[in-house]
Design brief:
The chain is of the alpha+beta class. The chain contains 2 helices and 2 strands. The chain has a two-stranded antiparallel ribbon.
């Protein structure tokens, strides 16, 4: 059985020949809240395709924007849950 080193040594490609291209990015945000005696967990995940020609700065910006989108979505869902329970409590009174 060939070792990894032997395989790499016999390969016709060097590390300089290998180019990695980011084609998609994915982010996930999650939070749990307690309302009364109950816990609610909210999670949002989104995956986006990115152009292969993105430079590192453009890719970093796309990642930051995707994280912001996911975090904002979770925050909005938490606000919706809290508003729903707040409105239910107002209706009881």
């Amino acid at each position: 059985m060939a070792t990894t080193h032997e395989i790499a040594s016999n390969s016709q490609f060097s590390n300089a020949d290998v180019k990695c291209i980011t084609k998609t990015i994915k982010a996930s945000s999650r939070a749990s809240i307690k309302v009364g005696d109950n816990f609610y967990t909210i999670e949002y995940t989104e995956e986006q395709s990115v152009p292969e020609e993105f430079n590192p700065q453009e890719l970093a910006t796309a990642r930051k924007d995707l994280w912001d989108t996911c975090n904002t979505e979770v925050d909005n869902q938490i606000v919706d849950i809290l508003n729903t329970f707040s409105n239910k409590n107002k209706a009881k009174n």
